[in-house]
Predict the structure.
Amino acid sequence: MSAVAARSSEHGKDHKILDGRFVAQGIREKVGGKVAALKDHNWQPRLVSLGIGAAEPAKLYIRNQRRVAEKLGIDFDERYYDESISRDEVLASIAKLNADPTVTGIIIQRPIPQTLSIKELQAAVHPLKDVEGMHPASIGNIVYNDLVLGPCTAVASVEMLKTTGLTLPGLEVVVVGHSEIVGKPIAFLLMSEGATVTVCHHMTRNLSVHLRRADAIFVAVGKPQLITGEMIKPGAALIDIGINQVATEDGGTKVVGDAEFESCREAAGWITPVPGGVGPVTVSILMRNVARAAELQKDHYERQYGATGAISGQ
Ligand code: NAP
């Protein structure tokens, strides 16, 4: 039994449920130590969040990012731009942040207006400030098995699987969903760990056939109840990345994943809840990336200019 499972049963909880808040806390403790060490060397990590257009859908995430950052001693700046902002103006703003040595990392909050390209904006962020791990160089590093600043959700999802204690080399894993920010990087990270990976998507002919032979399943699609208990191999680990808002009987709404939770919990050996699974770990990985980016930048500046305080203005 893994540390997480053992802890859960000690507290009388369902040992199958992988507690993302607990995993996130463990990561944050290590990040807190790194941030404190950076500050001891006069290097203050600072995260800048860029919201463009209707920021309302991202507000909850931004508030949470700020809360976690500040707890860890990371400065958090929120900037908002009107929907009418031009591509050139956003690119100029990112270029300014890239050139500012007091800025450690840049987050481009989604969604952005349709007039802009998220890929273009992400590629404009300096790779050393790419704390979301979405720059083409960061994605390329994963292919080369060189994890510098990894894409947060994908890295968080793999961390969750690792808490099961399953041996990754040779593990049969199915990844459902192949988006650039989640499914594809998960597949590459798992290949680096020695797992045998199958990637399914909307053209996959019979999802159940693949799922039934998987020791571990990652699902990142955005469709509630896509996976039910009878589709999976008994005892498999199920990492549910989906976030879907659905209506409740009393006229309200609630957030669910892509797996039908009750039936999958019965069948699975381990399952991540939504909310409280991959989500909190994703934020902790973002902060781990901020600390790593700060260390990389500090090294870079020290190599270029000598003592840190001299050029950073901190
Ligand atoms: P996305 O870009 O819309 O990608 C969805 C993927 O699912 C696509 O690869 C699509 O394949 C595939 N797909 C669609 N229908 C399918 C089906 N019936 N069977 C199998 N695959 C199917 O979404 P995303 O950005 O990857 O996000 C996926 C989910 O994760 C969403 O619910 C999102 O909210 C959530 N998410 C969570 C976190 C977190 O921190 N927990 C972070 C990011 C995203 P095709 O391209 O072939 O259509």
DSSP finds twelve helices and ten strands in the chain. The beta strands are 46-52, 75-81, 105-108, 172-176, 196-200, 216-219, 237-240, 244-247, 253-256, 270-271. Confidence is low (pLDDT under 50) at residues 1-11, 310-314.
